[in-house]
Design brief:
Layout (H helix, E strand, L loop, with lengths): L6 H15 L8 E6 L4 E7 L4 E7 L3 H5 L7 H17 L6 E3 L8 H11 L5
Parallel strand pairs: 1-4
Antiparallel strand pairs: 1-2, 2-3
Helix pairs in contact: 3-4
Length: 122
């Protein structure tokens, strides 16, 4: 009998393959995206030191207050603009996009497009 791996296990494996290909540096940190069933999270990480430079999520009160739902494409787009604004405040304009093993469509694509429009380059 063929056993089927869980979706989260497949996603984790894809993410590790992606992480072997690139990492964030001080000049060009990594924009890591994670989405759960209820929320989305975005972090800008310097992997050489292991520091999170900027973080935003739909759990934050200021972001959550402006959203009707926290797990749709509109929420992802809002999160993209928020993370880009916070990054620009810290002086970060260039990043490497880490989709976290998720397929680049829907919410992940909306977050990336919104971050690009708000001034991040990747």
């Amino acid at each position: 009998m063929v056993s089927k791996k869980s979706r989260s296990e497949v996603r984790r494996k894809k993410h590790m393959k992606l992480r072997n290909r690139f990492s964030g540096t001080a000049e060009r940190p990594r924009l890591a995206v994670f989405r759960s069933n209820n929320h989305m999270y975005a972090q800008i990480i310097d992997d050489t030191v292991g520091n999170t430079l900027v973080a935003a999520s739909t759990l934050q009160k200021d972001v959550k207050a402006e959203l009707e739902k926290t797990n749709n494409v509109d929420a992802a787009a809002k999160l993209g603009t928020v993370i880009a604004e916070k990054a620009k405040e810290k002086g970060i304009t260039e990043v490497v996009f880490d989709r976290g093993g998720f397929i680049y469509q829907g919410k992940v694509k909306a977050l990336a497009d919104a971050a690009r429009e708000a001034g991040l380059n990747f």
